[in-house]
Every structure is written in structure tokens, then in C-alpha cells.
Design a protein that fits this description.
The protein is of the alpha/beta class. 37% of the residues lie in helices and 10% in strands.
């Protein structure tokens, strides 16, 4: 009797198990997934295990894995690979807003850049010339046959565009035309800002998005000083946020762009740790206000150190040549907060392959969502830098091996900060467009959410001018 019960139980459990296994396979096949992926070990893990355990593993497998890892690391910063090109609608603003500010005169809206490209103003004006390079890039995209490496193209239909570009050369407008002329009640710069606000707020493109998808450049800290409080819904391209309240500009909606370096690029740099005799280099304005007062304090702390160059300097006379030679013969270059958190000095250092030492607690850096600045820059808190002997001892403790690693990385990333025409793959112009592209999904989400309910109670025109300090738009 017991034997019969035992056999019956065995048969019951056997058929139950078979039924369960068949049901499991049926479920997996219905999902379209491979049947054995979840129960067989990952073959790549087996390869890795073999390379760790066996000395007889072919070297080709190890080298292949290393090549794949290196390829992934190299491609991690190439932000435009396998991505759609940003479609940009650019307003045909009258020349008084752009190239006419550079002295160009012509009968058309835009210069014929096939034959000649108007030059930007020289000297320190160049450091804020970002709108010039972006505008040239969009204009050239209309006739360039090979768009390889381009991250943005101009489209003529605004409904097809991802963003709307406003070609106002606001930085040169401030630098050249912000002072009152005889018999003027308002400067040319202020008048242009007023015209710009009137023009933009009358456009269907602005009304459609209330400016959220518009790109406006104000790289000089004092540019667009009046219009910024009225055009704040737009995406600003800035040098930093030093002179902006968070309600007007912030890292969530705006883009930080690098300065255009003033010193020449260091081509064919064969220097090394031992051939750069100066440990720490700074040349520039020493006596600044606000957050820049730290420069004065560091000057008195470092001026007598034998391997430190810390002096006043400007672009006057032979200043640029002296700065070029000084940075190229220095291991580290100080980038200290001034009137604003940032300056072009950092980008002069990068182009000179002089490892930047950043003492600016409030600084925002270009493309930091895809670049790790700690690989080629030194960061020191202002409070630490002001401690007796802290900074000089800290710098002297960085050895040849560590400096060489950062120096090599500087040479790898310097192209990301290079402005040029024609623009090249992953240079500063393309990196800016890629940074804009990464903001587009958030813009579209805001626009889609805003379209949930009809705006029956609030006038669009009134919303645009709620005041100089709007509530946080994002």
C-alpha cells in the first residue's frame, strides 16, 4: 500500500514539474526574448574570468577588450555622434544688430561670406565674440555640402526648428556703443536693446513659446543689461551667472560658453615638467571689487616666492606676448575670481597647456555635464587659498607624474575651447550647439505641459512683462 502511495506522489510531482517548466518556456517565448539568456552565463563574463584565471588566454582577447574600453572612453565626450543635427531658425534681423556693429556695410541683410568674412574687433573684444562665431556657422550651413561634424544647421521654416536663434551681437554692442554720444539721451546699445525687445515680442515664434525656445547671447557680463529682465524666458548663452539673479539666468535653462582665448594656441608643444621653470603664474588686474578682492590678498602672500610670477598686466603695449611666453614657461596658471567668477585667463591657460588652478567658488564651467575638469584643472577653495602657506605648499607637492598626466589631458581637450571659421568637429562652436541640444528636451517638456490647458485667464502679453524679477521660470 505504501509503495503505491509513494509512486503516486512521485508521478504527481513529476508531471507538475514538467507542466511548470513548459509554462515557463511558453511565457518567455511570448515576450520575444531568447530562451536561454537568463539561465546561461554571460559569455563576456566568461572571457573576463578566463583572462583572470588562465595564463594561457590568447593576448588578442585581452587587447580587444582594452581597445573597446579605450574606444568607449574616447567617444564618451563626442556628444554629436549618432545624434540628429540641431535645427535652428535664425531671424533675419537688420544689419544694425550684427555685422554693421563691426563696421560692415552692405546692401543685403547678411555679408557674402563666400567671398569675404567681416573681421571681429581685436584686443579684449575677442574674448566675448561668441555670437559672431555661432552666426557664421549657421550662415555657412546653408551652402556647405559636407555637413559632417556639424551639430547645427539653419532651417528657413520656424515650425521645423528645434530652437530659434537671435543674431544680436550684444557684447560688441556694449563694448563699442554703450557710451552716450553728443546729443544722445540713450546710448546706441540701449536703443538696440529696446528695438530687439519690441521686435521679438511681436513675432509669432516668440508668442508661440513665450520665448522659451529662443537663444539669446549675452556673453559680456554687462551686455543686454536692460533687455535681460524682459527676455528672461529665453535660453541665454553666457560667460557666467555672476551678474544675474537666479530668476533671470540659471544653470537649468541657460548655457555657459567658453571665452575666446586671447593668447595664441601653443602648436607643437614639446615642453615638459622640467622645461617650465615657473611653478605658478598670474598676470592681470590685481585690485578688483566684490569677490575679486582675493586677488589682492593672494598677491601679498605669493609675491616674494622665488618660483611664482604674480604681477599686474594688461594687453597694452606688449602684454599679450608677455602673457603668452609666461604661461608657456609655467607649470600652473592661476585663475582667480575677479569682478565676476570667470575670466578668459583660464582659456588662455588651456591654450598654453598651463594647468589651470581655479580659485573661484562660484564659477560655472562650459560643458561640465560632459567634461570632468578635475582631469586637467586644480580646484582650491578660496578659504583654503587664504590660509598661510597653504597654496604654495599644495602646488609644490604636485609631482612630475601628476602634472604630466594633466598636461597631456589639456592637449586632448583644448580643441573643445577653440573658436574658428570654418568651424570643425567638436570645437567650441560645435560644443555650444551640442550643449543647446541637450537643453531641448526640457524645453519641449515645458511647452507640452503649458499646452495642457487653454490660457483663457492670462494674457500672453502681460505674462511677458511681470516685472524685473520674475518668479523662477523653471
Amino acid at each position: 500500500m505504501g509503495l503505491i502511495i509513494h509512486k503516486s506522489l512521485f508521478c504527481f510531482f513529476f508531471f507538475t514539474s514538467v507542466f511548470f517548466i513548459l509554462s515557463w518556456f511558453f511565457v518567455l517565448s511570448s515576450t520575444g526574448r531568447p530562451l536561454f539568456d537568463s539561465i546561461l552565463p554571460n559569455p563576456r563574463l566568461l572571457v573576463k574570468a578566463d583572462t583572470e584565471i588562465s595564463d594561457e588566454t590568447p593576448e588578442t582577447n585581452v587587447s580587444t577588450l582594452k581597445e573597446e574600453e579605450e574606444s568607449q572612453n574616447q567617444n564618451s565626450i563626442n556628444c554629436d555622434s549618432n545624434k540628429q543635427v540641431l535645427k535652428v531658425y535664425m531671424y533675419d534681423l537688420p544689419p544694425e544688430f550684427h555685422f554693421e556693429l563691426l563696421g560692415w556695410t552692405g546692401k543685403s541683410i547678411w555679408p557674402d561670406i563666400h567671398s569675404a568674412v567681416p573681421e571681429y574687433a581685436g584686443g579684449l573684444n575677442l574674448q566675448h565674440s561668441i555670437e559672431y562665431w555661432l552666426t557664421l556657422d549657421l550662415l555657412s550651413s546653408e551652402f556647405t555640402e559636407n555637413l559632417s561634424g556639424k551639430s547645427a544647421i539653419r532651417v528657413r521654416n520656424s515650425s521645423e526648428a528645434d530652437v530659434v536663434f537671435v543674431p544680436f551681437f550684444s557684447s560688441i554692442s556694449f563694448n563699442r556703443y554703450s557710451k552716450l554720444k553728443p546729443n544722445q539721451k540713450k546710448s546706441t546699445d540701449v536703443l538696440l536693446q529696446e528695438k530687439l525687445v519690441k521686435f521679438l515680442t511681436a513675432q509669432d515664434e516668440w508668442k508661440r513659446s513665450r520665448g522659451r525656445d529662443h537663444i539669446i547671447l549675452a556673453h559680456h557680463p554687462n551686455s543686454l543689461l536692460d533687455a535681460r529682465t524682459k527676455l528672461w524666458p529665453a535660453m541665454f548663452i553666457l560667460a557666467d551667472f555672476g551678474r544675474y539673479p537666479l530668476t533671470i539666468a540659471n544653470v537649468a535653462k541657460d548655457v555657459i560658453a567658453p571665452y575666446r582665448h586671447v593668447v595664441e594656441s601653443y602648436v607643437d608643444d614639446l615642453s615638459d615638467f622640467d622645461s617650465r621653470p615657473t611653478l605658478l603664474y598670474f598676470q592681470g588686474a590685481i585690485y578688483r571689487k566684490d569677490g575679486g578682492m582675493i586677488r589682492q590678498e593672494l598677491f601679498y602672500m605669493l609675491k616674494d616666492e622665488k618660483d611664482v610670477h604674480f604681477s599686474f598686466g594688461s594687453i597694452q603695449k606688449d602684454g599679450i606676448r608677455q602673457a603668452t611666453q609666461g604661461m608657456r614657461s609655467s607649470k600652473f596658471c592661476l585663475n582667480i575670481a575677479g569682478d565676476t567668477p570667470s575670466s578668459n585667463r583660464m582659456f588662455d591657460a588651456i591654450s598654453s597647456h598651463c594647468v589651470p588652478v581655479i580659485i573661484s567658488d562660484e564659477i560655472e564651467l562650459p560643458f561640465e555635464d560632459v567634461l570632468d575638469y578635475s582631469e586637467f584643472c586644480i580646484f582650491v577653495r578660496a578659504s583654503d587659498a587664504l590660509k598661510e602657506k597653504f597654496l604654495i605648499n599644495f602646488m609644490r607637492n604636485i609631482g612630475k607624474k601628476e602634472w604630466t598626466r594633466m598636461w597631456r589631458r589639456l592637449k586632448e581637450v583644448e580643441n573643445y575651447f577653440e573658436y574658428q571659421y570654418p568651424s570643425k568637429r567638436d570645437d567650441a562652436v560645435q560644443m555650444i550647439w551640442q550643449a543647446v541640444t541637450r537643453k531641448v528636451p526640457a524645453i519641449k517638456m515645458k511647452l507640452h505641459k503649458a499646452s495642457r490647458f487653454p490660457q483663457t485667464n492670462i494674457s500672453t502679453e502681460k505674462v511677458l512683462f511681470l516685472g524685473s524679477l520674475p518668479r523662477n521660470f523653471w
